[in-house]
Structures are given as C-alpha cells and as structure tokens.
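Appendix B, record 7
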Amino acid sequence: MDKKKNIDIAFKTTGCTWLSPVSDQVGVPLDQVNFIACQLFGLAAAFWFRLYLSPQRATPEVRHAVAAILGASSVMFCFGWYAVHIFILVLACYGIMIKASVRNVHRYTMVASIGYLTACQVSRVFIFDYGILSTDFSGPLMMITQKITSLAFQVYDGMGRKQEELKDDQRRLAVHSKPSLLEYLSYNINFLSVLVGPCSNYKDYEEFIKGQHVQHRLKRVKDGSLQQNGWDKVPEPSPVRTVITKVLVCVCCLLWFFIITRAFPIKYNVDPQFITEASFISRLAYAFVSIQAARPKFYFAWTLADAVHNAAGYGVSGVNERGEVSWDLVSNVRIWEIETATSFKSFIDNWNIQTGLWLKRVCYDRAPFYRTPLTFVLSAIWHGVYPGYYFTFITAIPITLAARSVRRNFRKYFLSSQQLKFCYDVVTWAATQLTICYTVMPFLLLALEPTLKYYRSMYFHVHVISILAMILLPGKPKSFKPENHDLHSNNNVKED
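Structure tokens (predicted):
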C-alpha cells in the first residue's frame, strides 16, 4: 500500500514530497500545494529582504546573490530535477549574451530560448501524454524566456542601434552594457518572479536592487526643469497596506475556487449527454459561468506574485490622481477592468498585462508587417504546443479585427446621450464576455478533439459572425459627429 502511494506521489510531482499529506487532505495536486507554499514563503522572505537586506544594509552584490539563491531553491523544491532545464536555458542564453554580436544578440537569443521552451513543451505533451505524468515545469521556463528575450532586445537597442532609431519606450528601457553573470542570474531566477512572474524590465530590476527604484519612480520634473518635487527626500513608502489588500484578494479567489470553480468543471462543456440534451442557450450560459469560475485561479497566482514583489519594496509605478503611491508597476491583472470590459481589446489589455507588454515590445513594435497576426502566433508558440492554444490565438485574430471594424462603424451612433451610451455599454459587455468564453474555451480544454467538439456544438457562430463583419463592414466608415460634443470628448468614452 505504501509503495503504491509513493508511486502515486511520483506521478503527481517531481518536486519535494514533504507536503503530500496536505495535498491529500485538501484534495489539491501536490505540485500546486508546493507552488502555494513557495509563494507564501516568498512573501515572508520578501518582507525580510526589504527590511534586513535593504540597500542601506547590504551591497547590490549581496542582494543579487540572495535573490538568486532563494529563487533557485524555490524551483528545485517545486520541480526537483526538472529545474535543470531552467538553469540550462539561463546559462546557455547568458553565453549567447556574452559571445554574440550586439547586432544579432536578440535574434540568437529569441531562437534559442523559444526553441528550448518549445522542445520542453513538446516532450511534456507528446511524450508524457498531455503532462499527466510530469510536473508542469514550463511555467518558470515561459517567464524566463520573456526575461531573457526582453533583456536581449534591450541590449540590442542600447548597444547595437542609434538612439534616433529608437521609439521613446525603447530608448527608456535600453541597456547600455551587458550584465555580469550574477546580475543575469538574479534578474532571471530571483525568488520574486521565478515561479509565475511577472516579467519586469531589467533597468527597473537593477534600480530596485540598488535602492533607486522608488526615488526614480516618484520623481516628477517641475515646469520642465530639473527641480524635483521632494519625493527623493522622504522615507520609502511602506507597501504593507497594499500587500494586505492583495493577499485578501487572493483569499477570496481561493475560496471562490473551492466553492464555485469545482462546481462548474470546464470539461462538462463537451460532455456528450450535455451537448445532446441541453439547448443552445443553456450551453451558452454554462460556458459563460464555467469560464467565469475558472478565472480566479489566474487572479490568485498573479495577485499573490504581485504582493510578493510589493512586499520586497518593488513595484512602485508613480503617484495616482489622489496623490497616493501606486504599487502596480508589475501588476499582471486588473480584475475590475476585466470583469467590466466592453471590448475585446480592453479585456486583453488588462489580462496577463506584463506578457502583453512583452509581446508588444519584442514583436508588435518591431514587426515590419502583419503585426497583429505575428503577435498572436508568437503568443501561441510561447504558451505551448497544446492544439487548444493555437485555436484560441488564431480565433482571436479575426475577432480582434472584426471588433475594431464594428466599433469604428457603430459606436459613434451611441455617444449622443448617456442613456444610449449606457445601452451600448451593456450590449458590448455581454458580447465581449460571451466572445471571450468562446475564444478561450480551447485554451482550457487543451486537446484537439474536445476543442472541435465544443466549436461544433456552438456551430462556429463567433467565427462566422467575425468573418462576415470583416467582409461586409467598410474599413473606413463615414465621419459622424454626435450632437453632444462634451460627451464625445470625455475620456471615459475614448475609443480604444
């Protein structure tokens, strides 16, 4: 009996098995229990890192070393020998960083990191039967791929291009000297972000390590001069209140998972009996509810990771309109904006935010043509080789283009009064949420057969509507001026 139990544990995870009794007690897979345990440890370590390894008490080298060691320990605890893949990728790409020409470092790094990530994902899907027999170590690899490629492009911008060739964002983030091995390891495998991210910019991370992050973010130039507003003279703001708020959000998401998510399994959408007996409206409603129920697990992971960064004193983006310090520089999700999104673009812009910024900076802003399709293709490749990922991102291309066309052609007619605008918002909210459900269902189903079964049961209706909208609606609608000019100019109704 004990032998069988040990075999079961081996199938659950390649990482540490100390918490297997907890896993059995709560009915959550051991690899997920290990992840939560490491993130909670990371939260406590982050407070210690800010208070006892502050830049005033420790040198940047010490802070780099401790952050890297704690990060390496976390991945070994969670993934066991699979952690070697993470170290191989980081060290190989550092070799490319040092040896390659600055004119080509971004190309070689992109090919090497995406290639290795894809090889690991292929082995899990096709050799280990959709990951059932192996721990999903691809998450950290995905985040490190973002960091490695971001840094390579920023080194290319800083050392391989003329400043006048750069866009403002590229100029601000450009790195003008190659990092040392310690700096490279710390940036890529630090305990704050090694498990679930998010990806932050190398210059921001370096400023955080050196103790310059908060001051640089809170400085505001007065009247175009170099006179500062005094933020560099005040004590560093405390993140405690922000961290507590985000931890409470995580608790709510965890409760939602245990109470709601388990009651509405995603796979029931492709249950043969459900498809046969339920009406189209019932199936549409269940899809909406099950997708809504699935989101909190992502909210939980990203919000907890954000809280870990903030607890270490990292994540200040500036000051909000109320004069309060904003701790959202590395935030990966805006829950309220997602749940109230009235357009496909608005949803995407607030979901997995740092990944969206990475795709924009390494692909969309640099692609010479077909920027939207190429960005979605890179996103699909980065996510993995499950067929469902490709269905989701390929489906998103016509939906995105159709949504733009519909918005350009019809939105202007609903801006003449608050009542019309409210009706427009309600309709577009419902359309957006249902479209998102339709689009991301393959992402959660993963495999080809259930994806096709679901889309057939839905009669491919969103595909058909999107393609018809692209064909029938004019690309450049006639100009239209609403009677209420004040409403049209309001930022709240500004076109995305």
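Remarks on this record: Strands lie at 318-319, 325-326. The chain has 23 helices and two strands.
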